[in-house]
Design goal:
- The protein has about 90 residues and is mostly helical.
- The protein has one domain.
- It is built from four helices and no strands.
- The relative contact order is 0.15.
- It binds zinc ion.
- Zinc ion binds next to helix 1 and helix 3.
- Zinc ion binds near residues 18, 45 and 47.
Length: about 90
């Protein structure tokens, strides 16, 4: 994961990096600059924003569980879907 130590440097994620941090984001496991960077990316990037909507819909569909309660297969499926989308 990228360093957030510089303080004033505004962190930005690429779409590829966002995939790697999205579950940590949902788990509230990111530091604050990274959390903000994720939200900024989702707000600015239609592609990832749309995916993230689906991600949350899926989470709700499995019982409104917090992400850390998702089963590993469910998480893996969501991550795989995101990764596959990026490879197109
Ligand atoms: Zn994106």
């Amino acid at each position: 994961m990228a360093e957030g130590k510089a303080g004033n440097v505004v962190k930005r994620f690429t779409c590829g990096e966002l995939v790697e941090v999205i579950t940590a984001y949902l788990d509230h496991a990111l530091d604050e600059p990274s959390q903000v960077a994720v939200e900024t990316h989702l707000a600015c990037c239609d592609d990832c924003g749309h995916y993230f909507d689906q991600f949350r819909t899926t989470i709700r569909a499995v019982g409104d569980a917090p992400p850390e309660k998702l089963s590993a297969p469910t998480r893996d499926r969501l991550m795989a879907a995101f990764r596959n989308r990026r490879q197109n």
